[in-house]
Write a structure and sequence with these properties.
Layout (H helix, E strand, L loop, with lengths): L1 H12 L5 E2 L2 H5 L2 E8 L10 H4 L9 E9 L3 E3 L6 E3 L3 E2 L9 H4 L12 H6 L5 E2 L2 E4 L11 H17 L9 E4 H4 L2 H6 L11 E4 L4 E3 L1 E6 L8 H6 L12 E5 L7 E3 L2 H10 L3 E3 L6 H8 L2 E7 L16 E6 L7 H9 L2 E6 L1 E2 L12 E4 L2 H12 L4
Parallel strand pairs: 1-6, 7-11, 8-9, 8-12, 9-10, 13-15, 13-16, 14-20, 16-17, 17-18
Antiparallel strand pairs: 2-3, 3-12, 4-5, 4-11, 19-20
Helix pairs in contact: 10-13
Length: about 375
């Protein structure tokens, strides 16, 4: 019987879906809405062999907005989408990373909120008067250290800079980020969070009479000064500069197969081997305020480079060959840092189509040393 019910439920879910609010109607609730491109990002400092892998930056675009919906609505527990009383979804409440899914027929629009689930759980709705809903941290991004700083704190800064009182109403965030140890650590480090009441999006729909929602431009320093000011009191005991090689655990999503060999080369040039996982958030902030040269495999922990701003930093980022994210190339450009990249190669006999590149890869020692000398300005 349970199997039959599940099959019926699955079939009905394909047809009983929400539609989007008329875009002109939604505009009434947008305090601002701006689009940006990334064609101003200078990638000329990246080595010629690697530069072609970053050309796609020029075709990127992103948006930022501040939405204030002033009617009774519901917040979807999975993605944080705003649903009106007449069952319309506000387009701007859809996280940017999921918008292509919504409008791609290949996915059959199956990721819209589940109306049947809503009807079933209506008795468990949590009710508030006014809330702030931060929903860019969803899916796999919900437990990501990078997006804690870039998205969640960036959005709080956007709200403050637009005179929204973030202490006057509860702030709704995914339970997944709230349970992360780095989130719990970080909000204890600044008094800005003392009077903020976080509530958690988990299994229940949220009903409210008024909601603010916003989005920042990713990898930009638009609100960085505000975020950094919250942690400006955290300083190292000694004002020295450091050369850091950031290592990753073998169980991490990206790992250099010949890492010992690469570490030995880095150490030859005075680099200290550091593992962020063995440091508290406060220790990481203090450390990165001192880093003048950084070598690191692409990963969320590299967001700590923001704590070096406005001082100088030269970064050499190590990438796998299957996918090359541009987040730190863009961010370094925005912060006035020097940035270069070195790309590894897949091990023979291995294939990997996973976007997160969960595999070992090989890094040519000679190529690595050549790049290392370049960032240190050693004659090659």
């Amino acid at each position: 019987m349970n199997i039959i019910i599940k099959l019926i439920y699955k079939a009905l879910s394909k047809f009983i879906k929400y539609n989007f609010m008329d875009f002109e109607e939604e505009k009434k609730y947008l305090i601002f809405n701006k689009s940006y491109t990334y064609n101003d990002i200078d990638i000329s400092q990246i080595g010629e062999d690697e530069r072609k892998n970053f050309d796609f930056i020029k075709s990127w675009n992103d948006d930022t907005y501040l939405l204030h919906y002033t009617k009774t609505c519901y917040i979807d527990p999975t993605y944080g989408w705003i649903i009106t009383k007449n069952n319309k979804i506000l387009y701007h409440s859809v996280p940017s990373s999921y918008r292509h899914i919504i409008y791609n027929s290949e996915y059959g629009q199956t990721d819209k909120p589940d109306k049947i689930l809503f009807l079933r759980k209506k008795k468990k709705i949590e009710i508030y008067d006014k809330i702030i809903s931060l929903n860019e941290l969803c899916g796999s991004f919900g437990k990501n250290y990078f997006f804690l700083w870039d998205a969640l704190f960036g959005e709080l800064a956007l709200l403050k800079n637009n005179d929204i009182n973030i202490n006057a109403m509860p702030i709704l965030i995914p339970k997944s980020i709230a349970e992360c140890s780095f989130f719990k650590e970080t909000i204890k480090l600044s008094p800005i969070f003392n009077n903020i009441k976080f509530i958690y999006r988990d299994k229940n729909f949220i009903q409210c009479n008024e909601v603010y929602q916003c989005k920042v431009i990713h990898y930009r320093n638009t609100y960085l000064n505000t975020v950094l000011s919250w942690f400006s009191h955290i300083k190292p005991s000694k004002h020295t500069t450091k050369k850091i090689y950031l290592k990753r655990d073998e169980k991490s999503s990206r790992h250099i197969e010949n890492n010992n060999e690469i570490e030995m080369i880095a150490q030859k040039y005075g680099f200290e081997i550091i593992d962020n996982n063995k440091l508290t958030v406060e220790e990481q902030i203090k450390l990165y305020r001192q880093v003048e040269y950084l070598i690191a495999i692409h990963g969320a922990g590299n967001i700590n480079i923001i704590f070096r701003y406005p001082n100088n930093l030269s970064m050499l980022e190590i990438h796998t060959s299957t996918k090359i994210p541009a987040s730190y190339a863009i961010l370094s450009n925005q912060l006035g840092f020097k940035y270069d990249a070195v790309i590894g190669s897949e091990l023979k006999g291995e294939t990997n189509n996973n976007w997160a590149n969960k595999s070992y890869f090989y890094l040519d020692p000679q190529k690595f040393e050549h790049k290392l000398k370049k960032i240190l300005k050693i004659t090659i």
